[in-house]
Amino acid sequence: MNQKQRMKRWTVEDAADLYQVREWGAGYFGISKTGDVIVTPLRGRKDVCVNLPEIISGITARGYDMPVLLRFEDILDSQIIHIHESFRSAIEKFGYKGEFKGVYPIKVNQQKQVIEAITRIGKLYHHGLEAGSKAELIAALSFLDDKEACLVCNGYKDREFIDLGLYACKMGFKCFFVLEMPGELDLILERSRALGIKPLLGVRLKLSTQASGHWIESGGDKSLFGLTIFQIIEAIEKLKRAGMLDSFKLLHYHLGSQIPNIREIRSSIQEACRVYAGLVLEGAAMGYFDLGGGLAVDYDGSHTNYMNSCNYTLDEYCADVIEAIMENLSEHSIPHPTIITESGRATVAYYSVLLFNIFDSSSIDVDPVPRELPENTPDIILNMLEVLKSLNVRNLQECYNDAIYYRDEIRQMFKIGDLTIRQRALGDKIFWNIIHALSENIKDLKFVPKDLMDIDIALCDTYYANFSVFQSLPDSWAIGQLFPVMPVHRLAEMPERNAILADITCDCDGKIDRFIDKQGVRHALKLHSVKEEEDYHLGVFLVGAYQETLGDLHNLMGDTNVVSIRVHEDGTYSIVREIEGDSVADVLSYVEYEPKSMTKQFRATAEQAIRENLITPQERREIMNMYEEGLRGYPYFEK
Question: What is the DSSP track for 573-596?
Answer without folding.
Answer: EEEEEEEPPPPHHHHHHHTT--HH
